[in-house]
Specification:
118 residues; alpha+beta; Single alpha-helices involved in coiled-coils or other helix-helix interfaces; three-stranded antiparallel sheet
Length: 118
Amino acid sequence: MSARFMANRNKVREIALKRIKQLFELAFKTLADRPDLSQRYVEIARKISMRTRTRLPKENRLLICRHCKKFIFPGVSSRIRIQPRREPHIVITCLYCGKYMRIPLKRRKKWCEGAQPS
């Protein structure tokens, strides 16, 4: 691939990320008044990311159900619980389709035997 092609691709991806962020902001603003419109904004943002082959930012990726692909907002259209059993993880339940997503939590490191906390 030529350098010109790569430079053009990077510009397209930068523009796409800006548009995706704008669409998610609009989705947050219109969620209370028009939930159908906020769903449409998120759908458009997903299509832009697929077309330009850019990953959605992690904070936005967690707000889309992996099963029904709808916009899930904590407390409104999803339920979030922390599970301490086995490996600690967060469980996000979509209230549209009833499916859930698990996100592992990182464990805290234990103090070394010889080290003292300061």
